[in-house]
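Technical note accompanying the year-one report. For the benefit of new consortium partners, we illustrate the data format agreed upon in the data management plan: each record pairs a sequence with a structure-token string. No post-processing was applied to the example shown here.
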Amino acid sequence: MCSSTLEKRSRSLRPLFFMVCMGLAGVLIAWPYLFTWLECRQIRRLLANSEVPTALKKSQRLAANHPDCAECQFLLAKSARRSADFSAAATALELARAAGWDSTKIHLEQILATAQSGQVRSVEGELKRIFQMDLEEAEIGEIYEALAYGHLAAFDAPEFLKSLDYWLDWRPDAVKPRLLRADFFSRIQKYSAAVDEYKALLLIAPDCVEARTNLGENLLQLNLAKEAAEQLQISYADQPSDRVALLLAKCLIQLDGAEKAKALLLEFRNSPNIAVQSQILEELGRWYSDCDDPETAVGYLEETVRLAPESTSAWHTLSTVYSMLGRSDDAERAQNVSHTTQQRCQRLFNVITQLSANPESIQLRLEAASILFEQKMDKDAVAWLRTILSIDLNHPEANRMLAIHYRKSGREDLAAEHVKLGKLDPVLSK
């Protein structure tokens, strides 16, 4: 009796067991696709929240693991484009197209890449048509972002500020356009205006560490060390980082907290961010110099000018340290470099200021590029020259300077391209 009952129960459970097994098999088969879908959704969320660096890292890893995934490649293209890596974005976009991704979305990405790179004028008509389409909210935000960065890349201040106004008219509580406007004021040394912008932004987004840190930096530029330190200490408590530590250390030095400043600087002296690392080393060099320890200071300062040869203040401090060590010839050389660099920086600032009122001036753009080449800041110089080509593709002098640059860099193919565009003599003079 018992045996018969068990056998009946066993038979009745077989279909259930089969269904469970099939279900588990289905989950195992579908899991990779489900995982990819979840990763794509997370990347889309990161992009919607403007967490572009994190989105880029995730999309690079996902696209590498799934090279035939159309959405993976498309998200990589979008992340790279928003990170201003237009070459990587174009490559990923072609892979997304080959994998069958929506051609309309691919075309929109291409338009945004063109606009964001500074060539806004060439796609103005298409952008107007795009704005008339039925767009998702995230897509509208990306268009405004690309326009703002595009005008900024073209060094067209009036259009840049106007694009931010349009963006804020659409979303008055948007954080990104306010950050961009405040940062712009800071770059042109309108520190009081930048402070006002950051304070207004923090009323809307009090947890925005970037805004609070930048507010501290601008207060420091206004010699308001105590107020700056208050903001930076909040930032450091929320999100310790090399840049915040550097700025906070600068405040502490002014507020008789030199030992605490030194500890912060030493903790972050090996920062992977070269720009921040060079400033930290410079501060350490100045700290030891003020403590009458030129032997230690000179090492930090020589490394600083190696990493950041454009740093006027580092060369000046290094000249002082050389004098303390009795190295008069080295001191004179460092002081000369400091003076020359300061003159170039002032010239560049004057050019940028003039360009803000006269964005159509090609001559000012040529002068900026020349100054940057003198400073060995070739990448920035090339960016300025490309803004000229976005206005006049065949401009002879801009193409000549680019051809010379690429020839010196060993890129004969690009040099030849600019010789052709500028209709130049293939034998370029120096």
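Partners are asked to follow this layout when depositing records. The chain has a mean pLDDT of 88.
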